[in-house]
Amino acid sequence: MAMAMNVSPCFCVASNRRSGNRVRAVASEDLVFSKIKDDKVKLGGSDLEVTRLGIGAWSWGDTSYWNNFEWDDRKMKAAKAAFDTSVDCGITFFDTAEVYGSRFSFGAINSETLLGRFIKERKVKDPEVEVAVATKYAALPWRLGRQSVLTALKDSLNRLGLSSVELYQLHWPGIWGNEGYIDGLGDAVEQGLVKAVGVSNYDESKLRNAYKKLKERGVPLAANQVNYSLIYRQPEENGVKAACDELGVTLIAYSPMAQGVLTGKYTPENPPSGPRGKIYTPEFLTKLQPLLKRIKEIGQSYSKTNTQVILNWLLAQENVLPIPGAKNSQQAEEFAGALGWRLTSEEINELRSLAQDIIPLGFAQTIGK
């Protein structure tokens, strides 16, 4: 990959602080941070170009799954710092949804509202900054027809404070009414409310149907956002990854670090709290240790952290755009260090082999949304 001569302002990449190491990128390292923002990819067959790595905003404002069921000003400032640091490092693609940060949860604030606020504040300081926003339509059972998609999209735009978004996705397949939802996506493109459209949590059959129906209107299906990580490879096993590759649909990978468990910060003695603790049990974390050990060893050979290795592994699968969730500046800075280098084929295959029999208990495809 050709590198531009301009160097990104984001040089220092935070490492796993438990290891006591601090990883620093330097210009002699093949200019690994040479203008990340210039290294963009097209989403599927659309004309939309975004950074090869995005940021997931699911945790922003959430009090039902993340943040220990509370949201306060300290967490707000940390999320704002995560946004600003991401932009500073050249990562300008942000994924949110209308159901993130439920308005019905005590203390919660909608993620779209926060993202819109962060963008507005950033533009005051840097009017030329360009941020690509992806959000999602919740296919709730009482929502029917194409107009429901447009109505929800306009509500999202109002919360974001924007006249349009780059990517609008159906968050999950509806119990019924899916054809109407797809029509709504096409209408949104034709009305100039979005630049590209996608789906999320769609299996191979529903993915192909959505692709075909949009194609009949001359609208490309840009992406399918699904749960995908080194230890959750169901998209490879159920035909979704192969279908995305065949149809030219970008696979956006959510929970790319398996909700933090692949970073190495959790151990059998220190499992995650809340709902994640039911998935990542001490027994499971015990089985995970050999894989985590090897990830760390490979990372040390590149002066990279576990997080940077596992994100790089996903990037190496091709046609995959990971969107790790950033709660603070340090995490956002670390994510940038997954770009600008590549694991060897041997390392990619070795990690896949070590992870082959590791299956999180009760880990359904919709977990992580």
Structure at a glance:
With 369 residues, the chain is an alpha/beta fold.
Keywords:
disordered N terminus; disordered C terminus; 369 residues; alpha/beta; two-stranded antiparallel sheet; 12 strands; single chain; globular; 37% helix
Describe this structure in words.
The protein is of the alpha/beta class and 369 residues long. Helix content is 37%, strand content 13%. It is built from twelve helices and twelve strands. It has an eight-stranded parallel β-sheet. Strand 6 (93-95), helix 2 (111-125) and strand 7 form a beta-alpha-beta unit. Helix 9 packs antiparallel against helix 12 (345-355). The chain starts with 11 loop residues before the first strand and ends in a 14-residue tail after the last helix.
Using only C-alpha atoms, the radius of gyration works out to 20 Å
By secondary-structure content and strand pairing, the structural class works out as alpha/beta
Q: Quote the distance from N terminus to C terminus.
A: 33 Å
Q: Mean pLDDT score, rounded?
A: 86
Read across the widest sheet, the strand sequence of neighbours is 5-6-7-8-9-10-11-12
Number of strands: 12
DSSP summary: helix tally: 12
Poorly predicted sequence stretches spanning 5 or more consecutive residues: 1-37, 362-369
What is the molecular shape?
Answer: globular
N-to-C order of helices and strands: EEEEEHEHEHEHEHEHHEHHHEHH
Fraction in beta strands: 5-15%
Major sheet, described briefly?
Answer: 8 strands, parallel
Helix content: 25-40%
Protein name: NADP-dependent oxidoreductase domain-containing protein
Pfam family, one: Aldo_ket_red
InterPro entries: AKR (IPR020471), Aldo-Keto_reductase (IPR050791), Aldo/ket_reductase_CS (IPR018170), NAD(P)_OxRdtase_dom_sf (IPR036812), NADP_OxRdtase_dom (IPR023210)
Organism: Populus deltoides
